[in-house]
Amino acid sequence: MKNAAIIISLLMLCCAPNVQAQDYAPLLMDNIIACEGKALSDMPSSFDGPECTRVNGHFASTFGRLVWLKGTVRVSEGLLNGRGPLGLYISAKASSAIWLNGHKVGMNGVPAASPEDEVPGKMDAVMPLDRAVVHAGDNEIIIALSDQHGFIPLVAPVHFIAIAPFLHVTDDILRGYLPAFLPLGVLILGALYFGVLAIRRHEGWQDFLVPLTALFAAGQLLSEVSRGLWAYDYPFHDVRLVLILTCATAGGVCLFLHVLFRFVSAHRLTVGLIALLTYLMLVLPAYGFDNKSSLALLVPACFAALIASFAAVQRAVYAKTYALALFLFSCIIALAPTRFLDIYFYYCVAALLVFLFAQEIRQHLAERRLRAAEQARADRLQLILDESRERVSPTSLKVTASGKVELVSAQDVAYCKGAGDYVELMLADGSCKLHSATLAELEGALPGTFLRVHRSYLVNTAFIASLDRDASGAGSLLLKSGDMVPVSRRIMPSVRKALA
């Protein structure tokens, strides 16, 4: 099981694609002039006034204000001479209006200096671009941006501005997200399967931690890929970011609690409080939602790795493999924290969940084997007790036949054979008595020393000499009297277990 989990995880990581972006000309984000605006009709005549500053375009604050940006887009000859229409792409948490080389390209919503005047635009938009207004080399671009309807002031609200071959923006985004549906399927199926397994086991709420980890990871991934499913208005982006962070936090907590309850029996509350304080100190002041969401999983994963490592030193079962898997997972996040939303991240999450699923299956199978062995010992002990009770106080059967009632000791019955509404009682001396009852009724009256081996046969275990099994899975019992009694294939496993 462990080897299978490792192989599946490696295959998933190998399948994770490295999506190549199409040929595009991006806005030079580190050479932007930003000016405070009062109205969309009030474009600055020059961008050198006291209200203007040089900024990195990604970090131009648009929250609760109208801002004008002026920068440069460098277009290559290859892009300009290519086939098909061009588009000007903008991904920003804001409404926008764009001019290129003095020509108005279009509007995404209506940017404004007040919420009443603003019409929210799409988070990701593309505007058809006339090739006549574009030339090779540097092209001047002016953009009006405003975020009057969002509720989270992002540090970097502008994600992407570029000229590229025209595509519907959701098609372009979804193309990058399509490979994420493989780990999404793994997470959803794992959450459903192990959730049902936890319900059937009835052993405590801790059994739900692994399926909940998978469920929150699936919710996180669904929140992420929603950007490629439909072009939503930019205020929904705040909701999406909160959902991603919430799912990452909940998934990290479930992962930590799973490891905590698996390997720590004493001082759980103390360990949990230390982890909580560390989480609050590191995650709350973290810079940007990407870093917050990464740390929301990294901090619990690191604590879980430490717990598993300490348990491995104490020689706890499976602790070493847990420590190794959690350490590798933590290193992947720590080495690329700002690439939280990358497809590879979700493959790594899915790979970790595959490992946890394998551990759950292994533990479940071990528990089933243990319960089966305990049940076999209990059945064997019960048989011994029944045999002892029969020797001290034999059970007597009231055999009714032809209107007569006769008492027959159960110790003298070698086996019983069903014959319609009657039962043939085969006695140790070779005689046969016909009893007017069904085999099911007789089974309830006989002591535990009698074993159902076939739908038509009950056998006194005291008379069994040997058990033979044929290639079909069925078999037969040889009795001390020399009689052969068939054993059905369906009942054979329980017969072998009872006679072991």
Question: What is the fold's blueprint, element by element?
Answer:
Blueprint: H1 2-15, E1 25-26, E2 32-37, E3 52-55, E4 66-75, H2 77-80, E5 86-92, E6 95-100, E7 103-108, E8 124-129, E9 137-146, E10 158-165, H3 169-177, H4 181-201, H5 209-229, H6 235-263, H7 268-283, H8 288-313, H9 319-335, H10 343-392, E11 396-401, E12 404-409, E13 413-419, E14 422-427, E15 432-435, H11 439-445, E16 450-454, E17 457-460, E18 464-469, E19 475-479, E20 484-487, H12 492-499
Antiparallel strand pairs: 1-10, 2-3, 2-4, 4-9, 5-8, 5-10, 6-7, 6-9, 11-12, 13-14, 13-17, 14-15, 16-17, 18-19, 19-20
Helix pairs in contact: 1-10, 3-5, 4-5, 4-10, 5-6, 5-10, 6-8, 7-8, 8-9, 9-10
